[in-house]
User: Fold this.
Amino acid sequence: MLGFVARRLLYLVPVLVAVSLLTFLIASLLPGDLAYVILGDQATPEKVAALRHDMGLDQPIWWRYASWLGHVLQGDFGRSFRTGQTVLQAVTERLPVSLELMVLAELGALAIGIPLAIACAVRSGSAFDRFMTGSAFGMLSVPAFLSAILLIYLFAVELRWLPATGYVPFEEDPVGNLRSFLLPALTLALGEWPVLMRVLRSDMIATLQEDYIAMARAKGLKPSRILLVHALKPSSLTLVTVTGINIGRLIGGTVIVESIFALPGIGRLLLGAIFTRDLIILQGVVLFVALGYVLMNFIVDMLYAVLDPRIRHGHA
Amino acid sequence: MATLELSIDQNLAVGEVRRTHRLGPLFWAAIVWMVLVFAAAALAGVLPFSPTDMDMLERRAAPSALHWLGNDGLGRDELARLIYGARISLTVGLCAPVIGLSIGGALGMLAGYFRGRFESLVVGSMDVLLAFPPLILALAVTAYLGQSLLNLTCILGVLGIPAFMRVARAATLTLARREFVIAAQALGATHARILLRELLPNVFLPLFAFFLLGVAVTIVVEGALSFLGLGVPPPISSWGSMIGEGRESLEVAPRLAFIPAVTLFLTVLSFNLVGDTLKALTDPRQSAL
Assistant:
């Protein structure tokens, strides 16, 4: 296991370096000089040249990358030239909102997906199973921004049960906080559950045909115990991987959902930076999100190796 | 009792496999819808109405004989905007996966056939591209490059390369060990001949099925970017931007958000359905759904 972790960690290093390089190159090589963006169109060439010199933009590109990377390694992701806030401050301020949203969404997806998967697997091939797998397939074609509109229309415009937008900090009002997260989390969960349900359903059908399940039935164990204890655990291996693979989609969905429901998370920070052309924040957030994504995938890999010995011995 | 249940399950499994080989009415419905959307997009220029003519007196007008789907918030004909929007969604949705298919497919086949250092290099560089959540990368690059149809297509195309590479490489890896390839090698065929004449025809079908699924994903991502106001710049209409605009008037005229929403959904669903059916046909191992 240690050897596996070491190998994966070693592989992580070049990926992280390449990610930082790509983030830097996207921000540096593409048209639009940062100095012009900061000073505006009316800036005199002398002023622009002076600022370029101050920011080190007149240095060769590899030198700029090295010094930028040096700062990043010391935890200095840069500072917004619009608000004066550092990237790190801006990100840590908004991270809890995004994390809460993602956790609630994933929990919601599991809460919908697991029971449906079990119900379908038990009666695989029945009308209920075919209806649910069909709906799951249909739901895969509903992007987050569609279900968001639909949910807003249903619960905020027609029924007026929940707020359409707005954010209540948890410290102020825990119930109000959960209410403000309900629709956004449900939006993301609606896109996630079909994936989880499809995977768990097919794994579960396979597990239910194993001999030890027949054995448990023969012993006269309660069906609920067989399903939840004997069948669910060995069937949930792929579920872990799929959850990991879906993190990227979930992050993308978070940006859209935060924008629609006006939640002050990382996604809104990113979009705000794009619309105000706050390129330093943009660069910092992209790097930060990519780093977080790579690390999360690493953790999922590790988790999977813990669950399935074949992976850590390199036979899969 | 357990044995009885097992035998039922096996019968069902056989039935399912047979069902996927017969193309059901849903498959043909999806094909018909795709043809309809294509035809509408292709004939948009011939149609007698404009997507940009504003009629300020008829803002959010209900559907009528003149305006079949009514008008939007600026008095523009909703049906015309929907049809011109189909042009954008289909242009991006088809062209971007073509980029991914050709570059990713070629890289994947070369990597799977030649193996060695080249394969490690290709897989490694794709891992870097995959290290960014796709939508985040698309947003960031659009922000720097600027919004235009060409930029959008290129960005989404490049984002698709890793996935196509993986499919092509996986298919090539298994095919390269098959007898017909070994026979061709024994006959002294060149690498180019083996790749183009022996492997390509076999890799193409799974790649094409994946291409259709890629179209569905691309239409969704393009819709999301336009919805956020970062797709093609106005006044060009795209389904995503129409949904975004319709969201503002959800209380007075929900129709303006729901009409493009349903159109987008049906189109994405059609591509998913046809792609999934073809995938099941080309891959004997995956018979489900």
Summary: The first helix of chain B runs from residue 2 to 21. Confidence is low (pLDDT under 50) at residues 1-20 of chain B. The two ends of chain B are 28 Å apart (CA to CA).
